[in-house]
Amino acid sequence: MKKAISFAIIGCGGISRIYLDLIKHLDNANLVAVCDVNGDRARTIANKVDVDWFTDYSRLFDRADIDVVCILTPSGTHADIAMSAAKAGKHVIVEKPLDVTLEKAQQAIAACRAAGVKLAVISQHRFDLSTMRVKEDMVNGRFGKPVLAQATVHWFRGQSYYDRSRGAGTWAMDGGGVLMIQALHTIDIMQYIMGPIESVFAHTGTFTHKGIEVEDTAAVALVFKNGAVGTISATTSAYPGLDTRLEIIGELGSAVIQNHTLRNLYYRQPGHPDPMFGEGGTNCAPNYVEEEGHAHGRQLADMIAAIQEDREPLVNGEESLHVLKVILAIYQSARTGERVYIY
What contacts 24+ positions apart, CB below 8 Å, involve 283-292? Predict the structure, then answer.
């Protein structure tokens, strides 16, 4: 029987509820402690799930019975906490992004490598059934030559969302606005399926939210290394909140992932006569049901397996840098008004 992996959570904000539930139900996992700078919040959650609580994560790291720490704090604190955890010999799971600068993210990766601990960065939508199916079909050549990808994240966040804390909407803590916080996952699965993004040209702006440093709206044109082209459209100004949508188009087929569900999947056979228009195509999208937390659960289970099998997590630190580089390049393009090359 494989040894159970013991977890601790650092940061008891809204996303922690998913982790609390997942760790309770995952095989070979148990939760032993939580930590938050807000002692009342840490104590309330700890009492609810019957674990120990801390307000200082350095004291948490002294616990010999903790194998993995889950870092759910503001983005600008991720790398520093990850480096401290690595120094203490703890494996690390970090909510996206690994940090708000490439330099700090690379420092965290180096620290984990030097300490011999595993590092996983949450990219849970890579573990969606829809993403896995489309990625598999792309790798197997069913789409043929990639042609176009379009990512749309049109959400709504009221002013209170940005007013909730001093760090919200700042470069130092959030590292960006709608692109870094809301659209990162969709951008990540776009480049994961289509391949690396070579260059970007972007416009960003802050249109409907007051007192924030970062963008609430962005429009981006991009080129992939394989020659395909794409767009990103993202905003937190779309009242009352519209869809997340990713379209993948190749010479032999197309897919639409809407709100992380595979809505459309069409293929044509090479060499068959083509109609002038595409009427009558058969939608072969599976009827997936993706409940909240399931993809997170698959990624946490992958981390447990990586520790038990002594292998890399599927989304390790280096893999997480791809989307971070894209978003940072978008911000550079928006600032300079120039096309920015990534690879």
Answer: 285/255, 286/129, 286/133, 286/262, 288/129, 288/130, 288/133, 288/261, 288/262, 290/128, 290/129, 290/130, 290/260, 290/261, 292/18
- Kindly report, residue by residue over 320-337, the tens digit of the pLDDT: 999 999 999 999 999 999
Q: Is 145 left (phi over 0), alpha (psi -120 to 50) or beta?
A: beta
Backbone angles phi, psi at 101, to 5 degrees: -125, 150
Element holding 49 (H helix, E strand)? helix 39-49
Tokens, residue 60: 């948490």
Q: What is the DSSP string of 288-325?
A: ----TTHHHHHHHHHHHHHHHHT---SSBHHHHHHHHH
What is the rounded CA–CA span in Å between residue 78 and residue 10?
A: 10
Mean pLDDT of the chain: 95
Distance CA 152, CA 218 (A): 10
Average pLDDT over residues 223-239: 98
Please tell me the predicted confidence (pLDDT) of residue 222: 98
Query: Nearest-CA neighbor of 170 among 207, 234, 215?
Result: 215
- Both structure tokens of 259: 């709100």
Tokens of 85: 């955890």
